[in-house]
Amino acid sequence: MQKEIQNKLYIELANVVPKNVLSIKNKARSWDYGYNEKYNFVVISKTGQIENVINISGLNIALPKVSKNLIKRSNKKEDQYWESKELPKQLKKIKSIFQWHDAPASFKNEWVDYIENEFNHREQGYWFLNNGISTYITGTHYMYLQWTKIDIGLPDFREANRIFYIFWEACKADKRSFGMDYLKIRRSGFSFMASCEGVNMGTITKDARIGILSKTGSDAKKMFTDKIVPISNNYPFFFKPIQDGMDKPKTELAYRVPAAKITKKNMYLTEEQELEGLDTTIDWKNTGDNSYDGEKLRLLLHDESGKWERPDNILNNWRVTKTCLRLGSKIVGKCMMGSTSNALEKGGANFKKLYYDSDCANRNSNGQTKSGLYSLFIPMEWNMEGFIDRYGMPVFRSPEKSILGIDNEFISQGAVDYWENEVDSLKQDPDALNEFYRQFPRTESHAFRDESKQSLFNLTKIYQQIDYNDSLIIDRYVTQGSFSWENGIKDSRVIWSPNKRGRFFVTWLPEKALQNNVISKNGKKYPGNEHVGTFGCDSYDISGVVVGKGSNGSLHGLTKFNMDNAPSNEFFLEYIARPQTAEMFFEDVLMAIVFYGMPILCENNKPRLLYHLKNRGYRGFSVNRPDKVFNKLSKTEKELGGIPNSSEDVKQSHASAIESYIEKYVGLDIEGSYRDQNDMGIMNFHRTLEDWAKFDINNRTKHDASISSGLAIMANQKHLYTPTKEKSKISINFARYNNTASVSQLLK
């Protein structure tokens, strides 16, 4: 099924709150700003009233009720769009709160309502009609659009940025969140939006410190001097505190005395009564793992975090700076992080891990994500310059009639069409193509696309498959879950249970007649479905490891060609995890092979899993190494089964098995050699595809998924490795590919 929701940045949720409850609480204005545990949403309304509930990137957010003071530019629908308003000429003459105090009462009376409304918009947000639709923007977004001067003047209104700011407001409101991790496209305006928030928060918060980090110290400094300081200096007087020091500081912007919130009640207060210290500063630090170590921050602006190259490490830095945002268990500050991603070896891998550790759908017992941040991705077609109409909406496909853009230029081509044309033009240069993907991603996998030069396998087919999978609602094909023994009785029947915490991902479950098909002979157990498929496993022996040093246990299930209502030649199970103990992993593996009734080929250099199978009576499930006849096996190999990973012949055979499988069953078969011409392969396990793309035969320890998947292929094709009388060694010519063209070429 195609991802229909990729053309929408959020999902509208219906009937989250019973209508009578919603009505009563709205009438009482009793909805509190922040996380509502009962209804599992984050209220971003500051009026006590809510209306619609939406889901952005896995986070449920309750929006404010539509304001009665809905602003409309025109009565004509087509002329309704965002339009910033000039500061009235009379107020332009007022440069400071001191001049306001000195102004005559008649002048203050004339303008106090205007100023008070601006403070209300800043606090509560703003409603306006946009092409006939009631549209809400947060207070921070309003400050960005109305009062933030960037390199092109005032910013454009874009729907993508509206969603960004709503998500950010939810991060601020949610007591469980340390902030956001925004995976973006190039020139999305993030640096300016982050700078806007820095100034916005800095000019309204007492006794606070706001910090700036970027991929280098000079980039952080540039963000401070070229964005933060000018934005602050261009604020109208009623928003602008008095600065301590120079008008254009280089290292620190210090707000020592605030501009008081001007209202009807306080407009006549004396100067002396107004002057209370704000004592808030904004500064920047050089890039490093220990930047801001030991500091207390109200806000951390983290720009270009996907481009930290060695020796700097964004993961290490976040572990340090995260502590700057909390006091004990209480979160007292937030981080606004955003970036495109470098190639994986150039800092991208660390950012990728941080991004996926920030998934709102995966929380610990404290309700927090692994990183503490919330991840957000907005596809390129939503935020591409030159393809946004005057309502801030993207033009996806080329229109029949040109559309007036937000820059008053006509749009005749769609963003997706432009993107596809660029992709086609770069297919002869894979590294340039992957760089384009990273800069202008339509999917998360595009954003983390790696450099291709070191790939051992056919990258064209691997990326074809990844891109195709990205166009699917993968949950319709892949189910997450767990196996367990029936009634908790080991070595009985195994039960499958779908659940979001499970370590298994499966695409096929055998019919009941094939489940738990175990054959008992002479007190030993054997697989009853060997003809249907096999498993491959990369195990580990030691439970406890130094943090970040232990590899995962990996298990893959693969079918053969069969006539048993099972898919043929398809990977149906992926398991890549490291449970708390090795014994838990062993039991997971055992339950999987029993449930499917299939044998397993393991590497025997880490024998504890094989001993676990033998001791429980399942030696018959363990496949012997296929490249030796039984009487040539060692004593241990006869006892346990398995195959060594130290043999060069085995390494080559293993890599050749993966190579052959990719050629036959992954990506497009353009010539129709193994499938119908131009049919797409079926390989739904993203992590495995990415591991194949990065596989290094000389450093296999990093590639658990490749090891286990390759062993599954070898087990299914063990007849290919059976030694003959004339030749006992494996003789397989391992092909290599030139990945510099649009289609990988076999090197002869």
Sum up the structure in keywords.
single chain; 748 residues; alpha+beta; Rossmann fold; 8-stranded mixed beta sheet
Can you summarize the main beta sheet? 8 strands, mixed
Q: What is the CATH T-level topology of the largest domain?
A: Rossmann fold
Shape: elongated
Rg value: 30 Å
Q: Kindly report the name of the CATH homologous superfamily of the largest domain.
A: P-loop containing nucleotide triphosphate hydrolases
Percent in helix: 25-40%
Unreliable runs: none
Protein architecture, described:
- This protein is an alpha+beta fold.
- It folds into 4 domains: 1-65, no CATH class; 66-378, P-loop containing nucleotide triphosphate hydrolases (Rossmann fold, 3-Layer(aba) Sandwich); 381-448, no CATH class; 475-747, Nucleotidyltransferase, domain 5, CATH 3.30.420.
- 30% of the residues lie in helices and 18% in strands.
- It contains 21 helices and 30 strands.
- The chain has an 8-stranded mixed sheet with strand order 10-11-12-9-13-16-8-17, with helices on both faces. The protein has a 7-stranded mixed sheet with strand order 21-20-22-27-26-25-28. The chain has a 5-stranded mixed sheet with strand order 1-4-5-3-2, with helices on one face.
- Helix 4 crosses helix 5, helix 16 (582-596) crosses helix 17 (608-615) and helix 19 (648-665) packs across helix 21 (704-716).
- The two termini are 40 Å apart.
- The model has no long low-confidence stretch (mean pLDDT 89).
